[in-house]
Amino acid sequence: MSDFYPVDPAFAASARVRKDDYQRMYARSVQEPEAFWKEMSGRLDWIVPPTKIKNVSFDPNDLYIRWFEDGQLNVSANCLDRHLADRGDKTAIIFEGDDPGESRSLTYKELHTEVCKFANTLKNLGIAKGDRVVIYLPMIPEAAVAMLACARIGAVHSVVFGGFSPDSLASRIADSGAKLIVTADEGVRGGKKIPLKANVDESLTRPHTSSVETVVVVRRTGSAIHFQSPRDRWYHTLMEGQSETCDYEPMNAEDPLFTLYTSGSTGQPKGVLHTSGGYLVYTSLTHELAFDLREDDIYWCTADVGWVTGHSYVVYGPLANGATVVMFDGVPNYPDFSRFWQVVDKHKVTLFYTAPTAIRALMREGDGPVKKTSRKSLRVLGTVGEPINPEAWNWYYRVVGDERCPVVDTWWQTETGGFMITPLPGAIDLKPGSATLPFFGVKPAIVDADGKTQEGECSGNLVITDSWPGQMRTVYGDHQRFVDTYFKTYPGNYFTGDGARRDADGYYWITGRVDDVINVSGHRIGTAEVESALVAHPKVAEAAVVGCPHDIKGQGIYAFVTLVAGETGSQALVKELIAEVRKEIGSIAAPDYLQWAPSLPKTRSGKIMRRILRKIAENQPDQLGDVSTLADPGVVKNLVEERLIK
Ligand code: WTA
Asked: Strands (DSSP E) along 402-522, which ranges?
């Protein structure tokens, strides 16, 4: 029997959505999706309001997803201009730097001015509707300014997380064909500097990056950097004298807003493409209801803008709602383990949203660093990115929230745009470790390996049987890959790549990825990417990468490596190979364990049996299952004996 936390009646009394509202609205949203979403679309300002609401086919042979397709709007106008009359002097962004002494804020009026000036700058630099812009910045307000300026003129941004290496950046530039990059001289995290501009310089020496004409550089640390004229331009110089107004481009609801690269089972990361109308309706509605947003809330999501959470729930959803958003450029343990809670007290944060990995890392330090802060402003706590273990959930609820604040465990994905399964804090009773029930319009189902829908209490693969407005529309430049990845496995359904269990109350428990994606600290790493970085080394013949349990990160990366004949493994070579992965992808993909494998377990047709490697990495050698189909069952014995986690 798991813990159960019924909705607090005091919270429910003034909540935006209560229990009967949820049931009634959910039923309507799935029975009459057109009427429901037409009504919900009214939350935005449209230049031309949509009359066609939903036009979708999940048939893999004829796949299309269109929402509000005859409507026109501008996302930046919805996040800024429409607030100016009533919220012009309201704080839009509170910036909190890595250094606790650094903070500043921008009102909606000020943010609007900055965005208009940068939109004019982009236009002067030859950027027009449909052009792609790569954003490689720290968590500074200029990141939001750059995103919104792109949205204003109809340019399609592609934000690349500052922790990615020059090679990863280069492959994203090449895939997107970006004309312009916005970056900073350096970033600072936990007191350490990150050479962003130097990384950009290096990435632009790689093949297929010649589409880039201009690099705009924000001065963040002031350190000396290499500057290449006329390609490189200072942000602050370009902004001087720009007009403070800029007409926004009327965009069709289905015009692209951004692409964001994410890892999957195979090949290179894919450019997940989101469009304008459906995405903004969905992110703003989910944000408002899952956090029970009020006019005077101070909302803080700790995610970086380099990930989808930073797009949907730092920038677009909250700003469309006219909320006050904290943007934090630091880390949870700098200068010390109280930092999150000091920032909560400093800015009187009411709604706080972070990842299980951060909660676990802080929990390990004990209650002390939390308890020395007040946190009495907090109202709702959220979590995202990976399954949260009940122990961490309870600590978050009990110690951080003083048993006062509902915990919303939001399950969603880069591909889904916004929350899919999540509690609404005034309406849905909580069970630690469960993302609870589907959001409005979301129809989850659990299928077995053959695609047969399971009823009642069950577990299996999680699919979504019908479209919702925030859904990704395609893989940039490769629509067939979109169809193949998400719609072929269980035809007629969107396949999430996650496993899930449904309990007797209909609650969903996400059990983690069922494909070859590892979730490290809430970041998706494709095993294929790590493998290809490893085999790029001349001494490596073959590599297989799987996930392993990790106390803080949720999952760690476990690599099995076979060297070319004549080479022998050494500690120095382990270090060298891990450094290779850091260089090719970035530190987040560095293997935690690297085991030498004289050979890998394969089927007679030559396919690596990952199931077996997973069990070895999970230290469950007695659960290897049937090894009789292996070409050479003997290889397993050695791998089990030499395993690095015992
Ligand atoms: C996992 C992040 C359990 C899941 C928004 C999903 C979760 C992947 C949760 C998407 C949650 C995200 N509980 N698992 N609340 N939230 N996940 O694209 O495996 O970076 O498929 O999007 O993270 O990761 P992504």
From this structure: 407-409, 444-447, 458-464, 474-475, 494-502, 508-513, 517-520
* Residue 191 annotated as lining a ligand binding site: yes
Cα–Cα distance, 542 to 538 (Å, whole number):
11
End position of a domain, from candidates 453, 475, 501: 501
387 labelled ligand-binding: yes
Full domain range(s) for residue 556 = 514-642
ipTM of the complex in this document: 0.99
Residue 508 in any domain: the answer is: no
Domain containing residue 569: CATH number: 3.30.300.30
Nearest Cα residue to 295 out of 11, 83, 439? 83
Q: What CATH number is given to the structural domain containing 188?
A: 3.40.50.12780
C-alpha 471 to ligand 1 mean position (Å)? 15
Minimum CA distance residue for ligand 1 atom 8? 413
Q: Evaluate whether 357 touches 554 at the Cβ level (below 8 Å).
A: yes
Cβ atoms of 499 and 513 within 8 Å: the answer is yes
Q: 113 and 201 share a domain?
A: yes
pTM of the model: 0.97
Residues 451 and 530 in one domain: no
In residues, how long is the chain? Answer: 646
For the chain, the domain total comes to 2
Last residue of a domain, one of 479, 501, 523: 501
The C-alpha atoms of residue 92 and residue 200 are separated, in whole angstroms, by 30
| Residues 7-30 pLDDT 10s | 999 999 999 999 999 999 999 999
Please check whether residue 362 is in contact with residue 391, taking contact to mean a CB–CB distance below 8 angstroms: no
Task: Give the mutation target among 393, 413, 431 for probing the ligand 1 site: most ligand atoms within 8 A of CB.
Answer: 413
Asked whether residue 537 is marked as a ligand-binding residue, the answer is yes
> Any binding-site annotation on 163?
no
Q: Which of 417, 318, 326 is nearest to 83 (CA)?
A: 318
Residue nearest to atom 23 of ligand 1 (CA): 385
Distance between Cα 522 and ligand 1 center (Å):
7
Q: How far is the CA of 62 from the centre of ligand 1 (A)?
A: 28
CA dist 351 to 77, 379, 397, 406, 434, Å?
25, 6, 13, 10, 20
Q: Are residues 591 and 476 in the same domain?
A: no
194 lies in the same domain as 324: yes
Calculate how far, in angstroms, residue 412's C-alpha sits from the geometric centre of ligand 1.
Answer: 5
Contacts of 583 (CB under 8 A, 6+ apart): 165, 167
Q: What is the pLDDT of residues 353-408, one digit of tens each?
A: 999 999 999 999 999 999 999 999 999 999 999 999 999 999 999 999 999 999 99
Query: What is the number of the ligand 1 atom nearest to the C-alpha of 523?
Result: 20
